[in-house]
Amino acid sequence: MSPKSIPMSGQLHAYLTESGMREHPILAELRERTSRHPQAGMLLAPEQGQLMGFLLQLLGAKRTLDVGTFTGYSSLVAALHLPADGQVIACDVNASDTDIAREFWAKADVADKVELRLAPAIETLDSLLNNGEAASFDFAFIDADKGNYINYFQRCLELVRQGGVIAVDNTLWSGRVADPDNNQNSTQNIRAFNSYVHSEMRVEMVLLPIGDGLTLARKK
After folding, report:
1. 94-136 confidence digits (pLDDT tens)
2. Buried b or exposed e, range 97-131, using 16+ CB within 10 angstroms
3. How far apart are CA 184 and CA 177, in angstroms?
4. Residues 71, 95: contact at Cβ < 8 Å?
5. Is the dihedral of CA 175, 177, 178, 181 positive or negative?
6. What is the pTM of this model?
7. Rounded mean pLDDT of 10-14?
8. For a pLDDT cut of 70, what percent of the chain falls above it?
9. CA 125/CA 153 separation, integer angstroms
10. Is residue 1 predicted with pLDDT exceeding 70?
11. Measured between alpha carbons, how far apart are the two ends of the chain, in Å?
């Protein structure tokens, strides 16, 4: 037993991905394709995707939000784990990155489950709320611009149902959040978000040391 999570070396991470998860082959292909992207560091860790799929099945999810789609890994995870009549609302502003996502949604035969909205995510989330879709989603995943994390979370909290889950990536920020000498804007934004969620009593929450830090919040 250990009182804290063990360090994740490259060797141990390779073992984890080989022995501790079952990644869909098209997800693996998308990871390989994205590894050549100039911003490949934005890609979701495969074990985070595995956990997301597990949660979606536990929730019996049918509708999900994907705030920050990039090349489509998280939205593809969701679509693969939703029933035939499930829906992913994918939010992004980058057409070239989401063209890759579209390619792989089609390759996995789940394109009909994903609705891509190329617009600022705040606008998309506000539109859903204005259309009376509050409490109609089972799950939301947030991995976009850090300065809007609190804004995204507040809107997703209205959009998910009671018992629904919001997952937020990068909340350990490569350890920079714990460095008192690091006062970069992005670091301060993540710290402010973590503090906000910790004090938000409408949710049960946990920050997991998986990937770059993953916060899970369940709406009470």
Report:
1. 999 999 999 999 999 999 999 999 999 999 999 999 999 999 9
2. bbebbbebbeebebbebbebbeeebbebbeebeee
3. 10
4. no
5. positive
6. 0.96
7. 92
8. 99
9. 10
10. no
11. 31
What's the pLDDT score for residue 138?
98
User: Distance (Å, rounded) from C-alpha 176 to C-alpha 167?
Assistant: 20
Average pLDDT over the chain, rounded to an integer: 96
* Nearest alpha-carbon partner for 156 in 187, 186, 124: 124
Cα–Cα distance for residue pair 68/12, rounded to 1 Å: 29
Tell me which of 8-12, 55-59, 64-68, 139-143 is least confident.
Answer: 8-12
Its sign, for the CA torsion 157, 89, 87, 37, is negative
Per the CB < 8 A criterion, the answer to whether 49 and 27 are in contact is yes
Task: Find all residues with CB under 8 Å of 183, minimum gap 6, and list them.
Answer: none
Reading phi first (left if > 0) and then psi (alpha if -120 to 50, else beta), residue 197 is in alpha
> Tokens 């004090």 sit at which residue?
199
Residue showing tokens 């989330």: 125
